[in-house]
Amino acid sequence: MPMPAPRRNRFERRRAETRQALVRAARQILAESGGASASIHAIAERADVGLGSFYNHFTGKPDLFDAAVADALEEYAQAVDERLHGVDDPAERL
Predict the structure, then answer these.
(1) Which of 19, 22, 49, 82 sits 20 to 30 Å CA-CA off 13?
(2) How far separated are the first and last CA of the chain, in Å rounded?
(3) Is the pLDDT assigned to residue 90 strictly greater than 90?
(4) What is the sign, positive or negative, of the torsion defined by CA atoms of 66, 69, 43, 37?
């Protein structure tokens, strides 16, 4: 049986929420424009966080957009895993 994840304190939860808000904003911007031309200020505004919060989590836009793409790929992989749950035939899984 897997160990339960340790409970995070309020600071850690808020920090994770802020980071996720920035990633979510970056994903939205990438989906809308198809490019990374948005300013850091616009991303922070979309995430509804202060500009300084951006730099608490990311070194720059490339770092954020890498995290946004990784987040999207993880979401896609989870959707595929859910769709294939209980499918044992290798041909069907492919």
Answers:
(1) 82
(2) 29
(3) no
(4) positive
33: closest CA among 7, 55, 61, 60? 61
pTM exceeds cut of 0.90: no
**Which amino acid makes up residue 64?**
L
Instruction: Go through the chain and tell me how many residues it has.
Output: 94
Res 4: pLDDT: 65
- The answer to whether the CB of 28 falls within 8 A of the CB of 42 is no
Topology given in CATH for the domain delimited by 11-93: Tetracycline Repressor; domain 2 (1.10.357)
- Report how far apart, in Å, the C-alpha atoms of 63 and of each of 12, 36, 52, 69, 70 are: 20, 11, 15, 10, 11
Give the HSE-up count for residue 50: Cα atoms under 13 Å, Cβ half-sphere: 4
Structure-token match 């896609």, residue found: 76
